Amino acid sequence: MYTYSDFDKKFVRERVTQFRAQVERRVDGSLTEDEFKPLRLMNGLYLQLHAYMLRVAIPYGTLNGHQMRQLAYLAERWDKGYGHFTTRQNIQYNWPKLKDVPDMLDALADVGMHAIQTSGNTIRNVTADHFAGAAADEIEDPRPVAELLRQWSTDHPEFQFLPRKFKIAVSGSPNDRAVTKAHDIGLRMVQNDAGEPGFEVIVGGGLGRTPMIGKVIRAFLPKADLLPYCEAIVSVYNLLGRRDNKYKARIKITVAESGLEKIRDLVDARFEELRLEFNGFDQELLAEIEAQFAPPVFRDGPVEAFDTYRAANPAFRAWTDTNLSEHRAPGYAIVSVSIKKHGATPGDASAEQMRVLADLAERYGHDELRISHEQNVILPHVHKSDLPAVYEGLRDAALATANIGLLSDIIACPGMDYCALATARSIPIAQEIAERFDDLKLEHEIGPLKIKISGCINACGHHHVGHIGILGLDRAGVESYQITLGGDGTETATIGERAGPGFSAEEIVPAIERMIDAYLDIRTDADEAFLQTYRRVGLVPFKAALYPEKEAQNAA
Fold first, then answer.
1. What angle is formed at CA 541 by the lines to CA 535 and CA 542, rounded to 5 degrees?
2. How far apart are CA 462 and CA 411, in angstroms?
3. Contact call for residues 442 and 434 (beta carbons, < 8 A)
4. Residue 512: φ, ψ to 5°
5. Is the Cα dihedral 85, 86, 88, 90 positive or negative?
6. Is the pLDDT at 553 greater than 80, yes or no?
7. Among candidates 360, 434, 423, 363, which has minimal Cα distance to 396?
8. For the segment 204-261, what is each residue's pLDDT rounded down to a tens digit?
9. In what order do the strands lie in the sheet with 52-57?
10. CA 66, 68, 71, 77 torsion: positive or negative?
11. What is the C-alpha separation between 418 and 435, in angstroms, rounded?
């Protein structure tokens, strides 16, 4: 993984010193809140419903045990003992005191971390496939490219005041685990006819109040052209993007209003200018970065201990069925650690749990951890012979829930429990759904199912691309939950279809239960997943299950 250079260290420390002075001026009243707001947002500090919130970047979701342990320290020293992992592979602290934030940033700098550009109308944290560097289906590790983009975008003088926030995601696999089609720029690694790796470039994706699937602006872009081409896209957007209406300021609106062909022509023209200016320096830098992402030295050893333990332990066997993925190295597995114990807050991890994860990564996982956009933690490199010990360590820390990819592995934003923008609660709804289906013991029978919940139209819970999406809204002072169906965040990305009128907080869980019962009745067999069934039969039978009283009226 990338290690900070002397330049990086100096840059981050200078930003902390600068922000410390700004905080002091805010505390003593020299700065008003209106004057302070753009300064704090540049450093990842929000003002939520009850307190400030600090959002810390975990670039492309990668960190080591020492860094995870430091995140635990921040949670205990300056917060309430936990952190919240987000859909942008960040961690949020919900209760810091303003005067303490510079000390938190200093502590982050001690381990090569920061909160720069986790907010504001700039290029946000670059995200990537959480299995990067480990997945068996991967063409190439995309994280060096993500790191190159991070260095390029950080404090880029032209792109600090864009029309709106700007998000980039990178995937190195044909199977998209980074939701690239819902980003301002999505980069999906592909190969040309000669077998050379490059990128399919997607532009204009995004969720929020106007959800759109990104469009392919370049089917194959050689790796050597990536940085000038991305700069060309952002340059064109910076000039064309609307600044008169923040709801129409994202690049997805720019693409929709101007047309993809016009945007492509403008980007190509700007790209030809920029391409000459780069002079290959970006490729020299990329080569230096790639050297830091050399894979660990994998060991070759017997796996009989894994097979024996699995045969003897049903709970371990169930966990291996859901929480392990195929690794590129023989004898290894990718471990997805669920931060979604039934009834828990999705994405929340205590300081003690973070320390357990750090210990396990250092002892059994080549000192690597990943944060997924689905709010879970990944141990990307674990030898199968070590899996029993890893499982036992996770079990003791209440982290061994066997539900990755199942109904209770719910994405949920903080909602009205924390967020000043939210119009409804998300966390209690996620908890109630998970607990209800745990009581019914149906999750494994239901199979793969992605439920995603947002507490407002901004869609931080990615509800538009959930197989079942739930959007919380305020209807005359009452929380109402609208359901969308058939969404998908993978390489076959689709925006979900609204099912009908919303449900109250008391009605939403029974409605979900009726719909799941309908799915179990109409699927062809146990191998047909919910999304496959929906694509086969469409909305009608699910709508009938959701609104039985309406169907009864129609029948009468």
1. 80
2. 8
3. no
4. -60, -40
5. negative
6. no
7. 360
8. 999 999 999 999 999 999 999 999 999 999 999 999 999 999 999 999 999 999 999 9
9. 45-47, 52-57, 90-93, 82-85, 348-350
10. negative
11. 22
Contact predicate 454/460, CB 8 Å: yes
Q: What is the mean pLDDT of residues 103-115?
A: 98
Angle at 166 between CA 162 and CA 171, to 5 degrees: 150
Q: Kindly report the average pLDDT of the chain as a whole number.
A: 97
Q: Are strands 497-498 and 478-485 parallel, antiparallel or unpaired?
A: antiparallel
In this predicted structure, what is the pLDDT of residue 549?
A: 84
Bridging pattern class, strands 369-371 and 377-383: antiparallel
Q: Can you spell out the DSSP letters for 197-227? A: EEEEEEES-B-TTS-B--EEEEEEEEGGGHH
- Quick check: 555 pLDDT over 70? no
What's the half-sphere exposure (Cβ side, CA atoms, 13 Å) at 337? 32
Q: Are the CB atoms for 382 and 365 separated by under 8 Å?
A: yes
CA–CA distance, 145 with 128 (Å, rounded to integer):
10
Could you tell me if 187 and 171 are in contact, meaning their C-beta atoms sit under 8 angstroms apart? yes
